[in-house]
Amino acid sequence: MEVVDIRPVLAPAISLVCAGLVFLQGSNAFWRRFWSLSAALVKLVVVLSMLPGSLQGIVYVYDFVEFTPGIGLAFRADALGMFFAAVSSTLWLLTTIYAIGYMKGAEHRVRFFGFFALCVSTTVGIAFAENLLTLFLFYEMLTICTYPLVIHDETPEALRAGRKYLIYTLTGGAFVLVASVIVFDASGTLSLGQPGILTQEMGMGTLTVIFLMLTVGFGVKAAIMPLQGWLPTAMVAPTPVSALLHAVAVVKAGVFGILRTIYNVFGVDLLAELGFTMPLAWLASFTIITASVIALFQDNFKRRLAYSTISQLSYIVLAASILTPFAATAAIAHIANQAFPKITMFFAAGAIAKKTGKKNIRELAGIGYKMPWTMGAFTVASLSFIGVPLTAGFITKWYMSLGALDAGEWWFVVVTAVSSILNAAYWLPIVYIAFFKAPPGTVMHVEEASPTLLVPILVCAVYVILLGATVEVPGMPFSLAEAAVNFVFGM
Amino acid sequence: MIEWPHWMAIVVLAPLSGAVLTPIVSLRDRRIAPWFALATMTVTSVAALFLIMRVAQEGPFSYPLGAWTPPYGIELRFDEFSAAISVVCLVGSLAILCSVRYTEWLRELAKPRIPYYYALMLLNLGGMIGFMITGDLFNLFVFLEILSLSGYALVAVSGERTAEMAAFKYLLMGAISSLLVLFSVGIIFGITGSLNMVDVTTRLASVAADATMPAVLALGALTIGFMVKAAIFPVHVWLPDAHAIAPSPISAVLSGLVVKVGIIGMLRVYQIYYGSGILDLTVLNQVLLWLGAISIVMGAFFAIFQDDIKLMLAYSTISNIGYIVMGLGLSTNLSVIGGAVHVFNHALIKATLFLAAGAFIYRTGYRTLTDLRGIGRAMPLTSIALSIGAVSIVGIPPTAGFLCKWYIALGAFEADQPMFGFALIFGALFIFIYYIRMVNAFYFQEPIHKEVLRVEEAPLTMLGPILLLAALCLIMGILGRIPLTFIEPAALRMLAPLGG
Amino acid sequence: MLEALWHNIDYVASVVLFCIGLYILIAKNNLIKKFLGLNIMETAVFAFIVTIGVIEGGDAPIMGHGAQAPFHSPIPHALVLTGIVVAVSTTALALSLIIRIYRQCGTIEADELREME
Fold first, then answer.
1. Which among A460, B395, B443, C105 is placed 20 to 30 Å from C88, CA to CA?
2. Residue A17 sits in the same domain as residue A73
3. Which of C45, C100, C101 sits opposite B183 (nearest CB)?
4. Which candidate, A86, A85, A82, A89, places its Cα nearest to that of A59?
5. Residue C3 C-alpha, separation from nearest chain B C-alpha, in angstroms
């Protein structure tokens, strides 16, 4: 059931207004914090207020503006979009709190918080985009708004990373635009509101081109190999940016685009006939394994996190490519299941770097004695990535394996298992070093980072456990993912 | 009021007579000149507004000058493409407003000569308006010459060292192109015995059999002539110097409006030839398509290597005209609509960019990206306007530049020429990366000249027009359906042969 | 072929004149000579337009039927007259530009000017 409602527009608009206010009044620390926090809070409330309706199957739509017949900006909060929006607005609130603590005393804070709000605005815009053009617009805006954050330090290294980032992602955006034009030419619509708008009659050639261009276009931000080059370099950004943008907003936008491509542009039935997704699944498997292996050899904390992100993102792509309901559930649920552990880790890495200035893993010996809460949260997140039951990661792996077996593709279960082992191989040593490799004579001397840093870390860690232990997590119920799957598969 | 037929005469005569009167009324006090010119443009704009409302209501209509009925007398004919006079009035008036301070600041322009600057400008605008609404081929040539001659003179006004050379180069190329136009007007008169466009169209259809050769010749000469005016590769060489060296308000008029005259000219020629159905235009379309594509790539490519902000904008004009010509060359409904809409929208976008660049130059005296580093902090409003213009010219939705690219790309796929669709969008990406460098320089890089950080925001007479145009860049994108409802019937009518 | 050319000798002449003008415009180095080339081209076009006004067996528009041929169509003359006015103003503008160039740069040879840039 579709209901016309302003809230899908309101949610991105709030962050937009917040960005404007930050730019205007941001030189005053109080107002900067006030607007950032209250906007994050209001936005979360707006998104969550749609949740009960969404769970009852109500889809909120709003045609914002139509440039010319057939193309325009329109918003639509369906189950899949709601899930993504709920994840990103929850994490925005937490990251804002974290960022206020982390950026204390840093330069260019007005610019930082202004563009930070803009990024979240565009991410929710992506989640609620009703058509490919709206999706493209917010996708490109996200690129542009992240750029000032990536080059925040304005060092030559940061500027270089920023340029690389722009070239990768803008090229990706161009692919998306070309694909949108072809889709419009072929089908006469760009809507993402149906389970598939393309049909077999459009010709194998056209469909192949569309699929290739959309996967490449969105795959850049989803960091599917060989398009991952920008992500590790972009780690020069301040930690809250790396956390929110490279665990949630930017990379998830790419993944979300791929989900939309598979579920709403092509539709699972068409793709099952065409068989396009098998190569994508293999590519994703390759990315999962290779990125994990590379991560093993990274000593820089954030770089290891970056490669782990690349690996984890491909889980979603892989699960989506399997085209069975269980795998689809895994794909959608993993949007949250990857975000929370990964952001926990980023927060932990940032807190450690802020507190002690240590950025490399081998320097972390005994850090568990100094920052037990932080490292405790980190351990929970590691367990989640390994896939230990009662953590978020387990749910994903369980459903994905079920889905792969449904499809008769047992190979992917092996990929999952190998990945779990690799995850263990590069996360557990950190935990081990932190708690058990302390230099002799280290005593328990708790010296945690400030509460604004610590609280978000702990909240995220709690979420990691909740996501694995219960289906009724406040704010992002599992049934929402299931509703999305039901819609996509026409169940 | 709307139906009053003489608006048509007023819209041409007001700026032309205003041009004559400006130096006279400002004999006592030269500061009157811009305001008198502005008043003239206001009258013209009001007349234009009525005409456009009328064409929206009842479609094309005509006005016999001196009450001589066509085809004997000269006919002014107002159709949907003529609605382009709206941007002529708007951009022209805003450029005049910007000139108030800019001309006072131009060192080389002697103060007593300032009224002549406005006279030339009004002459130029009046010529353009006449060109767009005339229904007579020879009249078309006359107006073409009025606007071209005043254009050459305006380029030379700036007094920068190379200005005269640029103006002379512009004059030589422009005079050859005008000659070609005159030559083909002669041929068309020779084979049809008429100069009235509608009349020529019907007569061409009936004399077809034995006169194809001269008709082809005339078409070729007209196309080349108008291509020079529109600065399509390979006859674009005059544009970068002329547009970069002219004073910024003039650059806005030249780049935003005057090059469009070539496009409107081509549209008129197409109307005649498509209407008569005398020739198969496939070959010409192929040529236009390729030249358009080359212009896009070449313009963008050269723009990337420019450090001078105005030179870069000038090359980007070549690139954008390439889009329009490509749209014409694809000759599908959608692509022609896209091209025609961009005639309007590019005028707004390019005027925003040139006027904003002019404001920087006015305040700092610097004109290269390197020198202007950090200007975004000193002149935030102008910089935002410039950024909107940049985003718009790249074609990011929902700005004005997007519609054209969307429609032309769609037309390319419709016409089974997907390569051009790809080229178009990746070309836009190319430009985007460059504009990002510009934004980078303005906001993020360390300034080279410390005094750049201390300049004030542009004066109100410049800032107002710039912000208005920037807002229009956004509005025309969001309300893109308005120009579209105008252009669509005209484009469809043009592509359909007579009686079809 | 030759006969056709001879039959249209007036057109051929104007085309030849046009090409001569174009050659001068491109080949000459002196700005004034360049511009003289343009003037020759203009003359060629004017001559061409005047000649199309001669139509064998055409009626005179004002004197009515029965008047003795040959008559010239007056419209091309009107056109050329306007064209000449335009050409004169172009020439005036070009010459004034050349004077300003000479004052600023001390030369009007195209290659020397190019070196100065």
1. C105
2. yes
3. C45
4. A82
5. 18
Residue B278 has pLDDT above 80, yes or no: no
Residues A297 and A321 in one domain: yes
Contact list, A171 vs chain B (CB under 8 Å): 429
**pTM for this model (two decimals):** 0.87
Measure CB to CB from residue C45 to each of B145, B179, B189 and give the nearest one.
Answer: B179
Q: Report pLDDT for B352.
A: 92
Mean pLDDT of A280-292: 89
Q: Name the DSSP class of A266.
A: I
Let me know whether A263 and A362 are in one domain.
no
Structure tokens at A478: 């599992």
**Which of B19-23, B109-113, B475-479 has the lowest average pLDDT?**
B109-113
CB B275 within 8 A of CB B215: no
Does residue B89 surpass a pLDDT of 50? Answer: yes
Residues A351 and A263 in one domain: no
Q: Given this model, what pLDDT does residue C64 score?
A: 60
pLDDT at B101 over 50: yes
Residue pair A475/A54 in contact (Cβ under 8 Å)? The answer is: no
Backbone phi, psi, residue B368, to 5°: -105, 155
Question: What are the two backbone dihedrals, phi and then psi, of residue B371, each rounded to the nearest 5 degrees?
Answer: -70, -30
pLDDT in tens, A358-398: 888 888 787 878 888 888 888 888 888 888 888 888 888 88
Which 3 state secondary structure label does DSSP give B447?
Answer: coil
DSSP helix/strand/coil, A300:
strand
The structural domain count of chain C equals 1
Q: Which 3 state secondary structure label does DSSP give A482?
A: helix
Work out whether strand A59-68 and strand B75-78 pair parallel, antiparallel, or are unpaired.
unpaired
Same domain for A280 and A270, yes or no, is no
Token pair for B18 = 């205003």
- pLDDT exceeds 60 at position A317: yes
For residue range A32-69, what is the model confidence (pLDDT) as tens digits? 888 888 888 888 888 888 888 888 878 888 887 777 77
Kindly state whether residues A201 and A283 are assigned to the same domain.
Answer: no
Task: Determine the residue type at C63.
Answer: M
Provide the domain limits for residue C85.
2-116
Query: Out of B152, B179, B190, whose CB is closest to C42?
Result: B179
* pLDDT at position B119: 92
Please give, rounded to a whole number of angstroms, the shortest distance from the CA of B303 to a CA of chain C: 20
CATH number of C105's domain = 1.10.287.3510
Last residue of a domain, one of A205, A239, A274: A274
Q: Tell me the pLDDT tens digit for each residue of B343-367.
A: 888 999 999 999 999 998 888 888 8
Question: Helix B400-414 to helix A156-187 angle, to the nearest 10 degrees?
Answer: 50
Q: Identify the contact set of chain B against chain A, taking CB-CB distances under 8 A.
A: 396-398, 402-403, 406, 409-410, 413-414, 418, 421-422, 425-426, 428-429, 432-433, 436, 443-444, 446, 477-481, 484
- Alpha carbons within 13 angstroms on the beta-carbon side of residue A101 total 20
Q: Per the CB < 8 Å rule, is A148 touching B425?
A: no
Q: Which domain holds residue A469?
A: 276-491
Residue with tokens 């040539």: B141
Q: How far is A180 from chain B (nearest CA, A)?
A: 10
Closest residue to B429, CB basis, from A68, A171, A184: A171
Number of H helices, E strands in chain B: 20, 2
Query: Does residue A296 share a domain with residue A213?
Result: no
Q: How far apart are CA B82 and CA B94, in angstroms?
A: 20
pLDDT of residue B2: 65
What's the structural domain count of chain A? 2
- b/e string for A190-200 if b means 16 or more Cβ within 10 A? bbbbebbbbee
Closest CA to B294 of B220, B229, B234: B234
| DSSP strands (E only) in B71-157 | 75-78
A1 within 8 A of A58, measured Cβ to Cβ: yes
Q: Kindly tell me the number of DSSP H helices and DSSP E strands found in chain A.
A: 21, 3
